[in-house]
Amino acid sequence: MTTQKRMDAGLRIFFTGVGGQGTLLATRMVGEAALIQGLNVTMSEIHGMAQRGGVVESSIVVGDIASPIIADGQADVMLAFEPLEAIRALGKCHAGTTAVVNTVPIVPFTVAAGQGQYPDVQDVLEDLQESLAKVVALDAVTLAREAGNVRAANMVVVGAFAGLQVLPVERSAWEESVRRLLPPKLHDVNERAFALGFDAGRAVA
Amino acid sequence: MHELLSPDKGGKRLLLGNEAIIRGALEANVGFVAAYPGTPSSEIIDGFARLGDEAGVEVEYSVNEKVSMESACAAAISGVRSLCSMKHVGLNVAADAFMTLAYVGVKAGMVIVTADDPSLHSSQNEQDNRFYAKMAHVPMLEPATPQQAKEMVLAAYEISEKFRIPCLLRTTTRVNHCRGVVELGDLPSGSVQGEFQRDPFNLVVVPMVGRKLRLQLLEKEKGLREVSESSPFNRLEGSGPWGIVTSGVSALYVRDAVRELGIEDKVTVLTLGMTYPMPERLMGRFLQSVDRVFVVEELEPYLEEAVRNTAQKLGLGLPISGKGPDGIPEAFELDSLKVKKALGRFFDVPVETPTPLSAPQDLPPRPPNLCPGCPHRATYYSVKKIFGEEAVYPTDIGCYTLGLLPPLQMADFLICMGSSVSTAGGFSRVLDRPVVAFIGDSTFFHSGMTGLVNAVTHNRNILLVILDNGTTAMTGHQPHPGVSITAAGRVEPRVDVEQVVRGCGVQRVTVVNPLNVKKTQAALEKIREEMKEGGVSVLISRSPCPLFERRMLGTKQRVVFQVTDACDLCRDCLSQLGCPAFVWERDAGGECVRINETLCNGCAVCAQLCDAVKPKKL
């Protein structure tokens, strides 16, 4: 019901992570799955200087929305691949936002160099839970390792989002999206990672 | 087959704006493509480089944007449709060619993509390149979506060919790097053989020819105005008394904002896709049909000036607004919320906005950084050891610009590509301090060579450090004239940096591998002494970009480094080298420094600086 209501007005999904985590691939995965499902979808990414270990942000809008980017307070969903970046992106969210958050930190080098402190992950998650309508926090790295490759943590997060069924996309379309975007040798591990995330998401949907 | 060569006419693909531009050019039977990479345009030339052979398209990574435009115009003047693409500041480099190419024109269609970067996501400024169209009298199309980008490329070739003038396709980051549904069209078959007809009194621009062509250009513009008047890209929607004028990606923000404000039946929206020449009659009819007008556009008041101009010509006194403190900001990109608020204020409609949450203020920043194992870090570390705080360090554009961040802080001045060496020459004449400039290999070829010749000519007392990592790393590892690593393995470079430097007349040229810290610092010591004699010294600091080398040659990493118990917690590794593989941790047991083995690249620079760091075989 909530899903239907959201889709009438369109759905804005904000992605945030750290360079090297596969944030853009995950974004494409969601976009491609929505396209396979026949939804109207637009994605926006930033390349270039944004990489090199910095923050990577991207967005997807689905439904009857023309603007490709998400303004402050407009994200209906946030997929965060790193907890510090989840809390940093809070300004994109509103009280009704649903978030999927990987709980494994990547400490920025500025902390190592003594510029600021990495916040306590538990505090970050509590903050998010207090502010947002729903937060699915999961250790995507451990689940990805279980699937066979820690680098598939991005697929775990996408899977958890799929499992929440906020976006009306069928399981088969998600799987087709994985197959379209990855070379055959990576299908198995990514499908397993997606499935582990999916189950975690569905359990709390 | 490359996915952009799919013959699936009518098929739908989720394409990046830049991919849609490639597809559009392929559907228009483009035969020649040239570009120097630059965000947000790089994927255009990279895509062409991947599919060129298969598609029968000649593809050139040019040495800079001016060269790319000249190269591509030669094809177009010979009857082969061509394309060149560049970031917005690239058109500054190509502007000399551009302004007079507008006079001389083309025979086959030529499209020039200028990719503007509002909000400076990856640029040094956010100039509005729409003014180039106006200055050169060149037609311009401004797409809003990938689908429209593809359609406009096709239309641009038609316009260009019909009027024998290049056509500008002006995009912004949110078009280039937006991915949307694009419907594929037909791919033509068969390439066109170039043919050149000698015609010096139209093709060789001496003053008498230029005078004639200037008048022809103004004549062409009359015809182009008619194209704009009837262009399907310039359209009116709605019939309400409140007028809105917009173009490009701003049109999308307007659409969402109007719907969210619930004012669909109160507005008339003039959406412009062909923004040079302006469709003045269409705009006039629009202005006569509304009682006030608001202009929504990113960056400068380009449309707004045209609207005011048209209203003045028609003697219309209706209120016109756009840029201003209560309106649309001039700086940075827009979004639907900014547009909604501005429209609400102007039309006096209540605005409901989401209540954004706010992030805590004291979060540690995560700026981009030189990668672990990056040879630039090693070069900076050594130069800083020898030249210290006293020297002035002009720098240039590339990954190495990140050397401005702590702890390296090895960047003092930068304005544009190639400015390192030329400004170093200037600094050296007015300052009584050593001047050490940094430039990357690709940037050196792009626009550093002329500055070096200038410095030698005037005997400037500078050290130019050429950071030679064998690729154009920042924009995605594109080749340049000096590359020695290719997919086929190691090769002799076509143009060797060292020979070029010597050819420019530099007597003191040293080549080092910066990953060897001791030898590099010894070389720098020697250079510092030699600089007392005056004149130009060049240090070529050569070590391949590790990401590139691994990708191209598939070399495996053999070793990682570890911090052993001998660590005395001096933290020099963190405060001086700043390699992101280093981690500082504090827990109940005290503090420690360690190396994240998944990030360590095995470059061994840290191990040369600290006895507590030891290798571990993989």
TrEMBL record, chain A:
Residues covered by the Pyruvate/ketoisovalerate oxidoreductase catalytic domain: 19-199
Gene Ontology MF terms in the entry: oxidoreductase activity, acting on the aldehyde or oxo group of donors
PANTHER family: INDOLEPYRUVATE OXIDOREDUCTASE SUBUNIT IORB
Protein species of origin: Desulfacinum infernum DSM 9756
Protein name: Indolepyruvate ferredoxin oxidoreductase beta subunit
Highest taxon of the lineage: Bacteria
Record key words, sorted: Oxidoreductase, Pyruvate
Pfam families attached to this UniProt entry: POR
InterPro entries named in the record: IorB_Oxidoreductase, Pyrv/ketoisovalerate_OxRed_cat, Pyrv_flavodox_OxRed_cen
TrEMBL record, chain B:
InterPro entries: HACL1-like, IorA, Pyrv_Fd/Flavodoxin_OxRdtase_N, THDP-binding, TPP_enzyme_TPP-bd, Transketo_C/PFOR_II
UniProt keyword annotation of Secreted present: no
SUPFAM superfamilies: 4Fe-4S ferredoxins, Thiamin diphosphate-binding fold (THDP-binding), TK C-terminal domain-like
Keyword Transit peptide: no
MF-aspect GO terms: 4 iron, 4 sulfur cluster binding; indolepyruvate ferredoxin oxidoreductase activity; metal ion binding; thiamine pyrophosphate binding
EC number, as in UniProt: 1.2.7.8
Cofactor names: [4Fe-4S] cluster
GO annotation, biological process: small molecule metabolic process
Residue sites binding [4Fe-4S] cluster 1 per the record: 567, 570, 573, 610
Positions of the Pyruvate flavodoxin/ferredoxin oxidoreductase pyrimidine binding domain: 24-184
Cofactor binding remark: Binds 2 [4Fe-4S] clusters. In this family the first cluster has a non-standard and varying [4Fe-4S] binding motif CX(2)CX(2)CX(4-5)CP.
Limits of the Thiamine pyrophosphate enzyme TPP-binding domain: 396-539
Top-level taxon of origin: Bacteria
Residues that hold [4Fe-4S] cluster 2 according to the record: 579, 600, 603, 606
Reaction(s) catalysed (UniProt annotation): indole-3-pyruvate + 2 oxidized [2Fe-2S]-[ferredoxin] + CoA = (indol-3-yl)acetyl-CoA + 2 reduced [2Fe-2S]-[ferredoxin] + CO2 + H(+)
One Pfam family it belongs to: TPP_enzyme_C
UniProt keyword list: 4Fe-4S, Electron transport, Iron, Iron-sulfur, Metal-binding, Oxidoreductase, Pyruvate, Transport
PANTHER family: 2-HYDROXYACYL-COA LYASE, INDOLEPYRUVATE OXIDOREDUCTASE SUBUNIT IORA
NCBIfam families in alphabetical order: IOR_alpha
Function: Catalyzes the ferredoxin-dependent oxidative decarboxylation of arylpyruvates.
Subunit structure: Heterodimer of the IorA and IorB subunits.
Protein name as it appears in the record: Indolepyruvate oxidoreductase subunit IorA
Organism of origin: Desulfacinum infernum DSM 9756
Species lineage: Bacteria, Pseudomonadati, Thermodesulfobacteriota, Syntrophobacteria, Syntrophobacterales
